[in-house]
Amino acid sequence: MKPPAVDHHNVWSHLRAAFPADLDRWAVETDTGLIYTWRDLDRASAMMANLLASLGLPEGARVAVQVNKSVEAMALYLATLRAGLVFLPLNTAYQKAEIEYFIGDAEPAVVVCTGANFGWVSKIAFKAGTAYVFTLNDDRTGSLLERAVHHSDVHAPVPRQADDLAAILYTSGTTGRSKGAMLTHGNLLSNALVLRDYWGWQPDDVLIHALPIFHVHGLFVALHGALINGSPMLWMSKFDPQTAIGWFSRATVFMGVPTLYVRMLAEPGLTPEAARHMRLFISGSAPLLIDTFEAWRQRTGHTILERYGMSETLMLTSNPYRADARYGGQSERRGGTVGFPLPGVEVRVAGEGDRPLPASEIGGIQVRGPNVFKGYWRMPDKTREEFTADGWFRTGDLGFQDERGYITIVGRSKDLIISGGYNVYPAEVEGAINELPGVAESAVVGVPHPDFGEVGVALVIAQPGQAVDPEQVIAALKGRLAHFKVPKRCYVVAELPRNTMGKVQKNLLREQYRGLFA
Ligand code: MLC
Ligand code: AMP
User: Fold this and answer.
1) Which domains are seen in the chain, by residue range?
2) Most buried residue among 269, 300, 302, 415 by CB atoms closer than 10 A?
3) What are 243-253's pLDDT values in tens digits?
4) What is the pTM of this model?
């Protein structure tokens, strides 16, 4: 039976309304061979939502989650939406000090972690005032499920308005402190609906879900994309190129960061025949090299569709899936570009004083629209800084829009490294290095890497009379930071190049070390 038409903005209700009429059809098949029906997703998220509701949490309470990818973890996300609470996903790579910061800053009422981490996570959480800590493992065990099974599998979603918070996603800060981007039900819903139309989702589509579900790409773009079209998913707990290629014959849509495409290209099984059943390959979260774009076309006969987005804004631009009437009917997916602003999303390129620039001139990319977040959690000053006086959000990306309307990103004004689709802020890593014994100063820069696109390299200056061992620097950082943030190489140097103001010239360092992984 179809649920009634939705008269409010709770994203869950809109996803649920798109479920197929026959709830006993398959919705998810995992790489371990488990099959979940649409009814399973509905019941599991209802039971968890009833458990959350039974806790009597205040309006706007946060549910922070650091667990391995599983269908139950996805159901927990859906349950949080259903219950009208705020979902706060955390990368499984984050370590103690990072988790301590996020929990201290967000003050979640509920924390869900793996059984293996319960000891240290619960200690941090209870100290920060969290009322409930549950466990959830990727083998369908843990106290969350033990408690949820005692609750009803029927649940009426809590009505939400477009402006109500749905999720907080932490993005690292340029000055070290991470900021929580507050996303509303209206943000998530508008983006999901736009992408469903722009990427031409079909009734018989099947998505290969290969990304983690703690960032925008896997959690919103991929998951919402399938659910709001009632499309089943082949579900990979951890990306494996051979499994992905093996699934192409049963799927139609794949979404990945460029590293996933690079890894699949290294597989001899990647052929036009293997990819014949596929309809669409989408790439984003980091620049897709033109070599990868072209190699993919040669090896599979498919042209990757590249799009561009951010945690604060969800998806902003996309190459066309088919002729776009707004841009003279152009339908070409152009490698090296991120395409056109999505319908309803305004994009401008601005120069000095936030003045819009003419076509083809490089400037800061600024955006406006129903997709743009509400602000940074408890950082009104930071929020104000990132918006122009006339209400545009400054992305920190540099680019231009050509005469044909295509946008190209040429760099970033923010000091940021994007490694395998994860953001690494040099300021945060330098801060951690500078605290190590014997270190006077450091600089971290991104250099090209064949697998991750870009990785960090650390240059360290020792204090006078002190010896610093680069390997010990790396080892010490691995105890403090998520490992993807740890520079892949470290060098102790006598000095760093500086400009006349004394500022480290990172462009010279990037140039000097750019061949390191060639
Ligand atoms: C893992 N490692 C990385 C890394 N991923 N190092 C640098 N960059 C990365 N991205 C390191 C680990 O710390 C570890 O080091 C070693 O590599 C092996 O770890 P692994 O877990 O086995 O790695 P693997 O499974 O191969 O992971 C690689 C990956 C993963 C590419 C599959 O990074 C990934 O899923 N990336 C996708 C990120 C994503 O979803 N981004 C979307 C953000 S949303 P050690 O030292 O411990 O041995 C966004 C907005 C938008 O940006 O527009 O979409
Ligand atoms: P995040 O803060 O993790 O959401 O990362 C957002 C950033 O990723 C953007 O500001 C861009 O710098 C970058 N990004 C996302 N998609 C692309 C793309 N297709 N090409 C280049 N950079 C991208």
Assistant:
1) 35-160 (3.40.50.980), 193-412 (3.40.50.12780), 416-513 (3.30.300.30)
2) 300
3) 999 999 999 99
4) 0.97
